[in-house]
Amino acid sequence: MTQAQTITDTPSEKSGGCPIHALIEWNATKSLGSRITILAFGLIAYAAFFATILYSIGFVTSFLVPKNINTGEVGGLILSLLINGSMLFVFVVQHTIMARPRFKAWFTKFVPQAMERSVFVLIASIILAATYFFWQPLPEVVWHIDNTILANGMYAIAALGWVIVFASTFMVSHFDLFGLRQVLVNAAGKDYRPVSFRLVGLYKLVRHPLMLGFIIAFWATPHMSVGHLFFAIMTTGYILFGTWIEERDLVAAFGDSYTEYRKRVNGLIPIPRFTKKDTQS
Predict the structure, then answer these.
(1) What is the pLDDT of residues 78-123, one digit of tens each?
(2) In sequence order, which residues have a C-beta less than 8 Å from that of residue 132 and are 6 or more positions away?
(3) Residues with Cβ within 8 Å of residue 44, at least 6 apart in sequence
(4) Measured between alpha carbons, how far is 96 from 116 in angstroms, rounded to an integer?
(5) Which residues contact 220 (CB under 8 A, 6 or more apart)?
(6) pLDDT in tens, 241-254
(7) H-helix or E-strand spanning residue 206
(8) pLDDT digits (tens, 9 = 90+) for 223-233
(9) Do residues 70 and 225 touch, judged by C-beta distance below 8 A?
(10) pTM score
(11) Where along the chain do its domains lie?
C-alpha cells in the first residue's frame, strides 16, 4: 500500500464515509491543504471569540459599544425577561453539552479533533453575539451611585474582574482554551497533547479564578438596572452550576491530584483552607 492510499483510506474508515470529515481528518499524514483549512477555521473562531469578549466588556459596562445592556427599545417586562432568559439559556445549554467529554467523543466522529474546540468557541461566540443583539433592556434602576469617587471605584473593581478573566486564561493555556493551539499544532503536522493539570498563579487561591473574574465584572457597577441585575443573576447561577458539572469531569480526568486540590483550595471564594496538617504544625 502506498502512502497516498494510506492518506485516502484511513480517514474514510474513521469518518464512517463522511467526505467532509475525510477531507480534514485529524491525522499526522493529512495533506497541507487540509491543515491550512483547519488552521484558517481556528483563526476565524479565535477572532470571533476575541471580538465577542471585547464587546462583552462594553456591553456590561455600557462603554464604547452601539448597543449595551441598558439601551434599545423598551418592551414589556414579561416578554423582555422571556427573550433575555431564552438567549442566556441557549448559551448555557451549548456550553454545558459541548464541554462534556462524552459529547466530544461523539462529536469528533464527524468533526476532526483539531477543530473540535474551535467549533465550540465559534458557536459560543455566535450565540453570545446574538444575545447582545436581541437583548431587551429593562432600564428601571435598582441602585445608582452618584458619588464620583465611589462610582469610579466600582468601575475599577469591574475592570479588576476583567483583568482576572484574561489573566486566568493565560495561567493555564489561553490558546489551548480557545482552540488556537490545537490548530497550530495540527498545521505543523504534530500530534496534539492536552495541557496537564497545573497549580499556578490565581489557581492557588481559587479553583475557578476565571469564573470569579466574571462574577466580579458582572456585579460591580455604579448603575444597576433591572436588566443588568437579571443578567448578573442568571450568569452567576450558570457559573455555580457549570463549575459543579466541570468539577466532576476534572475529578474523573485527574483523579486524586484534583481531589486533594479541592480539599485545599476553595472554588470561588479566595479564603485559605486549613487542613488538620496545617493546624497541627
Answers:
(1) 999 999 999 999 999 999 999 898 999 999 999 999 999 999 999 9
(2) 55, 56, 59, 67
(3) 122
(4) 15
(5) 154, 155, 157, 158, 160, 161
(6) 999 988 988 888 88
(7) none
(8) 999 999 999 99
(9) yes
(10) 0.82
(11) 31-273
